[in-house]
Specification:
Layout lengths: L1 H14 L3 E2 L9 H4 L11 E7 L8 E3 L10 E4 L1 H13 L4 E2 L6 E15 L5 E14 L2 E12 L10 H24 L4
Parallel strand pairs: 1-4, 2-5, 2-6
Antiparallel strand pairs: 3-4, 6-7, 7-8
């Protein structure tokens, strides 16, 4: 038994920590959400179809940038965060329901979150980029969205706040673009 314990201990030391799990918020910060009050849609409701279909439940296995140590990767819920925040932001301007005559197809061409740790294993830097193609009633456009938050040397209220802020900002950028395109093309 002692030999087995020693082997397990040595293997864990030699391989290091494999995954760090953070508690990320899936809700958009209220101060960001209220910015959507300025945008009203010309259509009353919309349904969203994601491509890939598993994007709203997807996680990235990521290694933090510029990390010196044995930590290998963290599970970062980029898909979960963007999809839930975008739905919440859009819902302030146009009702998002499961079955609507107006369907918005969102094809995620690329989505990624980058982060960096400070001392104490808190995330002090985050950047999120999304490139997506939107299709709504035969009208299509492709757009890139990005936001970066650097709290280096400042500290953070939570272990994950800088990355969560980037998800909020990108979701608001995406929602704003969608509403502007809906209203510009007078799809209502």
């Amino acid at each position: 038994m002692f030999k087995k314990a020693c082997v397990v201990f040595l293997v864990s030391i030699l391989t290091g920590c494999s995954t760090l799990k953070h508690q990320f918020s899936t809700r958009m910060d209220y101060s960001e959400l209220v910015t959507m009050n300025d945008f009203q849609s010309t259509i009353p409701e919309i349904s969203i179809i994601w491509n890939p279909s598993n994007f709203p439940a997807s996680f990235e296995e990521k290694t933090p940038d510029a990390f010196q140590g044995k930590l290998r990767e963290s599970r970062i819920p980029t898909g979960v965060a963007i999809a839930s925040r975008l739905t919440e932001a859009l819902d302030k301007s146009v009702r998002v329901i499961k079955k609507s005559d107006t369907v918005l197809l969102i094809k995620i061409n690329n989505a990624a979150s980058v982060y960096r740790y400070s001392e104490g294993m808190t995330i002090d830097y985050g950047k999120t980029t999304v490139n997506a193609t939107f299709t709504l009633q035969g009208y299509q456009w492709t757009e890139s969205f990005s936001y970066e938050k650097d709290n280096s040397g400042i500290g953070s209220l939570t272990n994950t706040k800088p990355l969560e802020i980037t998800w909020d900002k990108v979701a608001v950028q995406m929602a704003t673009s969608i509403i502007k395109h809906i209203n510009q093309k007078d799809l209502g």
